Amino acid sequence: QVQVVESGGGLVQAGGSLRLSCAASGSRFSINAMGWYRQAPGKQRELVATISSGGSTKYADLVKGRFTISRDNAKNTVYLQMNSLKPEDTAVYYCNVIAMYDYWGQGTQVTVSS
User: Whole-angstrom Cα distance, residue 97 to residue 40?
Assistant: First the structure.
């Protein structure tokens, strides 16, 4: 059973920064893409950023230039550096890991105050 554990959320003022981490463990298969999604109250879960095993990245337009996704393949860990945070970035952030199947973390709350 693959375990996906996020950390690094919290409360920050607008304009501030946070760094999220997500570690995957227990996979018998190679981990392919890893990514971050978010869900704000009353809204659907949306893509934030993804990164392939080879390092190719994809970002949602709303976070381009502010967020940076990276990964450490040796540690099966993905990071999300979030800068210039805005109140509209407030959401629960979920880590997604694709190995043989799709796996999700429990989510970490990010709150940006104005």
Answer: 20
